[in-house]
Every structure is written in C-alpha cells, then in structure tokens.
Design a protein that fits this description.
With 269 residues, the chain is α/β, with parallel strands linked by helices. The protein has a single domain, classed as 3-Layer(aba) Sandwich (Rossmann fold), CATH 3.40.50.300. Helices cover 35% and strands 27% of the residues. The strands form 3 sheets. The chain has a 6-stranded mixed β-sheet with strand order 6-7-8-3-9-10, with helices on both faces. It has a 4-stranded antiparallel β-sheet with strand order 2-1-4-5, with helices on one face. Strand 11 (242-246) and strand 12 (253-257) form a beta hairpin. It starts with a strand and ends with a helix.
C-alpha cells in the first residue's frame, strides 16, 4: 500500500537551537498512528512541522505525494484538521463552534452557513455525543465535552488527515477511553488517517497500529506497538525500569512500572 503521509529527511526546529534532524517515516492511508517520547524529545516540534506552525529547514513532508508547503491554506484545511491539547472554552455556542469547521468551504461572498453545513455539523455533533449541548456555551462544558466538540469541529472539515495534540491530557480515565474509542471508530468507519501525540504508553499501545518513538530530537524507533513498546526501547529512552507483557484480550503490549522500593527489595532477594 502506498504511503499517505511521507516525512523525508526532515530537519526543523527553533532559533534557540533545538532541532529535529533526519526524520524519516511513512504513514499509510487509514492508519491510527501515535507520536510518543519523553518531554523534550521532539514530539511537539515534529507535530508543528506537519501542521505548518514551524518552517521546514530541510527535507519534505508529502501528503498524497504533494508537498504540503505548496498547498494553499484553504485547500490544506480541507485535507488536514487539527485538534489541539485544549479546546477553546469561549463564550460561543457549541453549534457555532462546530460550524467553524466549514470555513474552508465558504465562497468569497458567502455570509451564512448552508443547509449542508448545518447537516454536517449536526451529523458530527451527534456522532461525538455533543448534539445535546449545541445550544450551550463552550465555556459551560467540561474538559472532556470540549474535546469532543473540538473533534466534531475538525470532522466538519471533512479532512483526510486528523492531527491531535495530546487529546486525552488532563482528562480522567473514563473520558480518555471515551475519546480514544471515538477516534478509533472514526479511523475505522471513515477510513480517516489519524496521527496524534500521546504520553500514555499503555493507551498508545492499545489504540494505535503504528508508533513513532522520539528521543533527543531524533526518531529512535518506528513500527507496530509490539515492535516499539518493548522494555529495551522504553528503558533506553525513558531511563525507567519497566516490565512489558501482552494484554490477554487485545494482544497489544502493556507496560508496568516498577517502583524504586520494589527494585530495592528484589535486589536483596
């Protein structure tokens, strides 16, 4: 299967000196991919290079064999949707917030949303479970509900690629699972390609089918969760002792932490 998103010899970074160099990976159409790694490893820098927030110094980022730097902003917004870490908790109705996702499709002199815009907004609000809040203000929703509304807005863009920056950060486990179950469903039902930054290695292993492990501005390992999430890679990158086993139901890798006290007790046994 040909690659859908291709990162080729990427170099990018900041004037402060932090750089990513020689980043290479391909993501196939319909993949659910995750970017993992410790703080400061380059996850966000990589993410921002794909969204266009920071400039590419060397290399290419190709979407369907087209360099994304050559795609006009309006056309790019039809192909790529972005959900940030924290949704905007503004005093705007949820329905109006979700309808903002239709902006790339508005004609130059179009002032109001079309029937199709409203139909799509309602479709994705229903799918994400926020239709019942459509007449509420975004600021009145919980953090998890705001994230679901942000995903609904992204989906109304009808993108080919959904980029998510830690969509489950600061959420309790029930909302984490709810949101990742939804993203997994969208990935499968809509053949939507997903790339997200995620900190929790167990969630990354359970939900993603492809992982990119970053460390010190370089791509350390890439592949399936089984290929990436073994104790050697995790201990080398995170400098933390772990035990990895297979989830008996999903057959995906599960990671267990080991406390210092437990380690010391076992040293004396």
């Amino acid at each position: 299967m040909p690659e859908f998103l291709k990162i080729n010899e990427l170099k990018c970074g900041y004037p402060s000196g932090f750089m990513l160099e020689k980043i290479n990976f391909d993501i196939q159409k319909g993949s659910f991919a995750g970017i993992i790694g410790p703080n400061g490893s380059g996850k966000t820098t990589l993410f921002k290079s794909i969204t266009g927030e920071i400039s590419i110094i060397e290399g290419d980022i190709l979407l369907n064999n087209t360099n994304i730097s050559t795609i006009a902003p309006r056309q790019k917004a039809r192909k790529i949707a972005i959900v940030t870490q924290n949704a905007e908790a503004a005093d705007i109705l949820v329905e109006d917030y979700v309808l903002m996702g239709r902006f790339p499709y508005k004609s130059t002199f179009q002032l109001f949303e079309s029937k199709e815009d409203y139909a799509l907004a309602n479709k994705f609000m229903k799918l994400t479970g926020v239709l019942k809040y459509k007449d509420k203000l975004m600021s009145e929703l919980s953090g998890g509900e705001q994230q679901l509304a942000a995903i609904a807005r992204a989906l109304t863009q009808e993108p080919e690629l959904l980029l998510l920056d830690e969509p489950t950060s600061h959420l309790d486990i029930s909302h984490q699972v709810q949101i990742l179950n939804l993203i997994q469903q969208l990935n499968e039902d809509l053949d939507l390609t997903v790339l997200m930054i995620i900190h929790d290695l167990n969630l990354a292993g359970e939900y993603c089918n492809y992982l990119i492990l970053m460390n010190n501005g370089k791509l350390h390992t890439k592949g399936t969760p089984k290929q990436v999430l073994n104790y050697k890679h995790i201990e080398e990158v995170y400098k933390t002792v772990v035990i990895t086993q297979e989830n008996p139901l999903s057959k995906k890798p599960a990671i267990f932490l080991v406390s210092g006290k437990t380690l010391n007790m076992n040293k004396h046994d």
